[in-house]
Request: fold
Amino acid sequence: MQGSKLYVGNLNYAVTNEELNELFSNYGEVKSINIIEGKGFGFIEMGTEDEAEKAKEALNGTDFKGRTMRIDEARPARNRERRGGGGGGFRDRY
Reply:
């Protein structure tokens, strides 16, 4: 693992930062938690790479609040190019 930030997917939409903090703090220091509202996933930054790896190994595939969590190393954000226009115009048809 190359970082201490984890992607946590397939979360129950009712899960709170406090609940995730309690769960992940069993494996080390939790530096930050960012749940993406209404999407069922979030990101957790652990204190060290080793702590992140321990949390991933222990919690990936386990049930939490009725959902099987998917935990992986978070990937860096991609730069998204703006392509303009919404389509459907004359040029798009011919």
The mean pLDDT is 89. The longest helix spans residues 49-59.
